[in-house]
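Sequence only, no structure available. Ideas?
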Amino acid sequence: MKKIIILCAFVLSLFANEEQVNSAENSAKFEFNPNVDCLILEDENSIICKFEIIQDLENEQKIVINWVNPDGEVSRTRDIVVPKGDSSAYDFRYIEGRELGKWDFSIIYRDKEYKTSFELKD
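Reply:
I predicted one. Tokens follow.
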């Protein structure tokens, strides 16, 4: 009876190990295509931008957020630490006092830049 239990435990551990190897290989092949989006809420005088990241249950993740004004200058940069287990980050700014025109909201995540644009009109 002990031999059967030991054999079953051994076989299960082999399958579990194979799952971990396959999971690591799949994540290495996985191409990340994040959702970066900004929403203008004129009635609340706010611009809210959100970025989705790959959820990491074991580690904090770091991202850099850049707001680029219509002149192409970075008007604000923020380093954000995303707690382990979270899968998104957001930032907001007030509309009042912002230059009119096309703005870029960019994220640097895992050494790659992702961006979206929005336009502030009069």
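The beta strands are 36-41, 46-52, 61-68, 74-82, 88-94, 101-109, 112-120.
Hope that gets you unstuck.
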